[in-house]
Amino acid sequence: MDYKSIEEVVLKALAAVLKCEVTSDFSRENTPQWDSLKHIEVIFTVEDELDIQFTEDEMGGLDSVSSIVGTILTRHAT
Questions:
Q1: Exposed e or buried b for every residue in 36-54, given b needs 16+ CB within 10 A?
Q2: 69 near 3, Cβ under 8 Å?
Q3: Does domain 3-77 have CATH number 3.90.220.20?
Q4: What is the pLDDT confidence band of residue 78, given thresholds at 50, 70 and 90?
């Protein structure tokens, strides 16, 4: 998968969980409704859509669209 196709999945997951329009610059820092509960929902949704499982260490760093996509790309590169 390439960056754009992964980003599309992540954006759809965020939109579904947060029930709002999302853009590629979304992060927990600039999105008040992306709280800890919604964070877990986003992670689970992305995992289900892409048939992957993030480690506990990875989950803490998945705080933006770019960090989620980057982590997935790194996993696929190895």
A1: eebbebbbebbeeebeeeb
A2: yes
A3: no
A4: low
